[in-house]
Structure formats: C-alpha cells, structure tokens
C-alpha cells in the first residue's frame, strides 16, 4: 500500500512521480519514515519534560538518523520543486509558495518544508496504514468482505466508471478510491499467521508500520 499512496502523494506535493509500483521497490524516503516518526514521538514527549538536551546523547543513532533523513529528503525535494517554478500542472509546493510570488501571505522557507513533510507523511504513511487496517478487518470478517465487494463491483461494468464525484477531503478521496479500485480488480485472502496483525502493532506518533501478508488474485471477469 505504501507504494501506491507514496506514488500518488509525491506527484501531488512535488509534481514528481516516484514510481514505486513500476519499479517494484521502496523509495528511500519510505524506508526512513518509520524511524523518523518514532524519533519525532520521542522528541515531543521528552520536550514536554524539558529533557531533550539531556537525553539526546543517549538516543539510538538509528532513531536520530531516521529523523534527520526525513528532514533532508523534504528539504531537497521542496527546493527542487521551487526551483522549477510554475508548471502547467501545479503541485502543492508551488502553490504553497504562492506561485513563487512574494507577498505578505507567502510562506517562509521553514513553513514550506514543514508543510511538505506533513503532507507526505499524512498522504502516504497514514493513508497506507488506514488501507492496510481496513483490508485486515475486512479479511477477518468474511460476511463483510462479500458485502463490500459486491457494493464495489455490481454498479460498475468497467474500472473507469469507478470514480469519486463527491466533495471529500484529499485523504478521503485517496483512501476510498484506492480501496474501491483494489476490490474491483482483485480477490483478496489473508495469509496464515496474520490473525494477530492488528493487536501486535504499536502506536507512536501514528500507528507502527507492519507488513500485512495477503494473497492477491486478479479477479475473474464474467461475460
């Protein structure tokens, strides 16, 4: 799911498709998000007690590196997007800069970096976790699986008909449309030893990312 959601949000935020589904591999940014989130959660808690500077030398290097890598990726890609200027297909970074025009309402450089990072994490990591959780819950309730699959497949004869035409937020559109298209195209089955997948996850700043193993079979279309 991370491949799909990151592919979508990278295009919307930076105007650049990272192509995870096509390359069949994780973009480096996806790999640093889990450690980055754990590091951020720890920093927020420690800061509340005024202990950040005291504890910082003892924080695991992997946690520190994950957070630093997230900042570096955000900074690099945001600067790249700003240097390109306005395009025929505006992205969030360009819009956040006011089309690179100066003015009282223009965001500072730090604000652009912060918003870009928030959009990437919320639009890829958070949505991927939601989709994985929805699939798990659906697979552990067969009667619900049959019902929702029928609701997605019966009204539409072709995939192109399956679109969102309602005033929803970006996250809602991305989540619902991805989920609907997944169910329209594929039959899903939970792999063995996945029964405690949901219960075994931890929560930090967001829920912990944990691989969910599902058998995916292309749907057999009836004439």
Architecture per CATH nomenclature, i.e. the level-2 architecture: Orthogonal Bundle
> Looking at the structure, what is the overall shape?
globular
Radius of gyration: 20 Å
The main sheet orders its strands as 1-2
Oligomer status = single chain
Distance, first to last CA:
30 Å
CATH class value: Mainly Alpha
CATH superfamily descriptor: Cytochrome P450
Query: What structural class do the secondary elements suggest?
Result: mainly alpha
Percent of residues in β-strands: under 5%
Would you list the SSEs in sequence order as H and E?
Answer: HHHHHHHHHEE
Helix content: 55-70%
Largest sheet: 2 strands, antiparallel
Mean of all residue-level pLDDT scores: 79
What is the CATH third-level topology name? Cytochrome p450
Signal peptide: 1-15
Family: Belongs to the cytochrome P450 family.
InterPro entries: Cyt_P450, Cyt_P450_sf, Cytochrome_P450_monoxygenase
Organism: Knufia obscura
């Amino acid at each position: 799911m991370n491949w799909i959601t990151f592919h979508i949000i990278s295009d919307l935020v930076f105007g650049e498709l990272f192509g995870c589904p096509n390359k069949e591999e994780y973009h480096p940014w996806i790999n640093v998000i889990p450690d980055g989130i754990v590091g951020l959660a720890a920093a927020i808690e420690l800061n509340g007690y005024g202990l950040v500077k005291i504890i910082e030398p003892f924080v695991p290097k992997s946690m520190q590196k994950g957070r630093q890598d997230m900042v570096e990726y955000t900074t690099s890609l945001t600067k790249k997007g700003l240097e390109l200027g306005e395009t025929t297909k505006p992205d969030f970074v360009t819009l956040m800069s006011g089309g690179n025009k100066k003015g009282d309402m223009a965001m500072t450089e730090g604000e652009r970096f912060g918003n870009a990072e928030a959009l990437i994490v919320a639009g890829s990591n958070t949505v991927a976790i939601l989709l994985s959780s929805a699939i798990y819950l659906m697979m552990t309730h067969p009667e619900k699986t049959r019902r929702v699959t029928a609701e997605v497949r019966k009204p539409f004869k072709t995939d192109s008909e399956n679109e969102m035409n309602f005033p929803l937020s970006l996250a809602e559109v991305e989540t619902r449309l991805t989920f609907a298209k997944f169910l329209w195209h594929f039959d899903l089955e939970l792999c063995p030893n996945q029964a405690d997948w949901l219960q075994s996850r931890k929560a930090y700043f967001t829920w912990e990312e944990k691989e969910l193993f599902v058998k995916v079979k292309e749907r057999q279309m009836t004439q």
